[in-house]
Specification:
Layout: H1 2-5, H2 15-35, H3 40-57, E1 67-72, H4 99-109, E2 112-116, H5 119-129, E3 133-138, H6 140-150, E4 155-159, H7 174-184
Parallel strand pairs: 1-2, 1-3, 3-4
The structure holds iron/sulfur cluster.
Iron/sulfur cluster binds at residues 76-77, 80, 82, 84, 91-97, 99-100.
């Protein structure tokens, strides 16, 4: 991991092994966490932060058109009648939730933006659009499994904010999303 973070090219062949090793260790780390009183969410947050840190230090940069940003359906206002999972253009930009501003950001910066109801749809969208990089907005659990699922596709994560509890009228720090995207586009 030190070689990876230091971006020492000669050791880049280790990337796959390091990632597989982390995946292998993950359930053991969760178990240790239980023993030492560290919650699963905290460990997942560390995994996401470390993953983003490695991607940044590897200086991964793609064209905006090759970046796919996926957000969970719970970011949409629960009472919104517009179906955006099949077509985000159905959003009326009333800005009562963060979907409208995220679409505006995608149009302004040129990346793809989609809303997915779950991991299966997210994987289907990624297969169709064939991005070179993914940025997912989700909770700790979904980000951790999503980053592991799509490997070797580089995937960064931004945590959603859940003022109403999980999976209901969630939101996201739009400034943080934009900052994170800027780190990864040319
Ligand atoms: S911004 Fe779009 S998705 Fe959100 S509530 Fe308004 S119309 Fe619905």
């Amino acid at each position: 991991m030190v070689f990876n973070i230091a971006n020492i090219k000669a050791f880049s062949f280790l990337d796959k092994y390091i990632f597989n090793f982390i995946n292998f260790l993950f359930p053991i780390i969760i178990l240790w966490g239980k023993i030492f009183g560290i919650g699963r969410r905290e460990i997942e947050r560390s995994f996401i932060a470390l993953n983003n840190y490695i991607l940044t230090h590897k200086n991964i940069k793609v064209e905006a058109k090759d970046l796919l940003v996926i957000s969970p359906h719970c970011l949409q206002l629960a009472t919104c009648p517009h179906k955006i999972t099949h077509d985000i253009n159905n959003c009326k930009h009333c800005n009562q939730c963060t979907i409208g501003p995220l679409i505006d950001m995608a149009n302004r910066m040129g990346f793809h933006f989609r809303v997915a109801t779950g991991g299966t749809l997210a994987r289907k969208i990624a297969k169709e659009l064939r991005p070179k990089m993914l940025l997912a907005i989700a909770c700790e659990r979904d980000l951790t499994s999503g980053i592991q699922d799509v490997y070797p596709l580089p995937a960064a994560g931004v945590l959603n904010i859940r003022p109403n509890g999980p999976c209901y009228n969630t939101t996201v720090d739009l400034e943080l999303v934009e900052q994170t995207i800027k780190q990864f586009i040319k």
